[in-house]
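User: ok so my PI wants both of these folded by tonight, can you help

Assistant: No problem, let's get them done. Here's the first:
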Amino acid sequence: MRKYIYTTLIVLALISSCQKDDFCVDPITPNLVIRFYDNANTDNYKKVSGLTVWAEGLGELYTDVSTDSIAIPLDPAKDFTVYNLKSSTGEDQITINYLRQEVFVSRSCGYIYNFKELDLTNVSNNWILNTEITNSTVKNETEHIKILH
């Protein structure tokens, strides 16, 4: 009889210790979104021809594309990321400075990073004529930087 009681207690303990599995569906660190605009009419999008984008010391994210917007990651290990943007009319380098904010999502997803207080420095202005920060906090993938060319 004791054997059955111990076995029943062990089985009940095992069943009660089981938990529903947590799955991380989609929380990821958001990318910085850059939109390209016409310098003559700053409300109109303008595609960049032959755009190639790469981060300093890393591989290319975009290679010879024609687009009016890009989404690029920021480095969560540093307070800045240096990007090179090459178009069919020239090459520019920009440094994007920010403050990192670690955000706990859940046990299964862990942490993501949001970035705030965006600032652009060292824009070389070869084909990029002007820049504007439209949203200084990167916590979702909406437009953050406006580049006029």
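One down. Here's the second:
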Amino acid sequence: MFLCMAPFLRQGDHLLASRSLFGSTHQVITQLFPRWGISYTYADLRNPAEWESLIQPTTKMIFLETPSNPGLDLIDIEFVGNLAKKHNLILAIDNCFATPYLQRPMDLGASLVAHSATKFMDGQGRVLGGAIVGQKDLVKEIRFMARHTGPAMSPFHGWILSKSLETLAVRMDRHCANALQIATRLEAHKEVAWVKYPYLASHPQYELAKKQMQQGGGLLTFELNGGYERATRFVSALKMISITANLGDTRSIVTHPATTTHSKLSVADRMAVGITDGLVRLSAGLEHIEDIWKDVAQAIEASK
């Protein structure tokens, strides 16, 4: 996601970003950009009314991800798109969780859209890659920087990803169906403190999810009764589901964000975006739903 921002920000510029971001993106914004004289402000995605007041004369870009990683919070892309247009700002969106099959940010006002092609775009854990699409003049700047700084994939990996796109729709349909089933069952389980999934009616932004996403995606988060200790016992008890910080694979994957993807954030920063010590992120794979649920259910029981 660095390439979405770096070609357009100079010393003295200001970036407005959503507070809920992938851990490495947070590190770039808070640790690297200040060294280059680029300032930033985080906006609370739960309070869209404050966004316009945070725009400064030096603001050049708005950057956000929706759904967010790992909290699955949503931002109204059309609202922010209109805001960016009003102030002549670049709106860049990390669309990794939704993919272009489920969400099309450029139709809602985005200038640039970034994807981690390593995740659902490939969908089989075979390659490292990314893709940025957007307005022609902006992509030209990104291509120039990528060509001269090195972040370009090999032709072979490009070919693999081109083949992967042929099955994106059918894979995402299965990911989404499995994730909704697991989320629904978890929500009814007495050992679950809470569960979050965009297409659950209990999600605080359910109506927004239905408005700007075609389905709820392949990711869900939840917390078992017992917090951190229960979460670690649950993860350790899984037998079929892979334990890794990745997502979007054919296999189901679980991770504990507080000790992996977002471990570099302070406790205060994690809590500000709802990443509790007991939060577990599950990426629903393409296995039979009953096989996934059997592993989740036995791990819940074993973690008591």
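Residues 168-187 form the longest helix (20 residues). The two ends are 39 Å apart (CA to CA). Good luck tonight!
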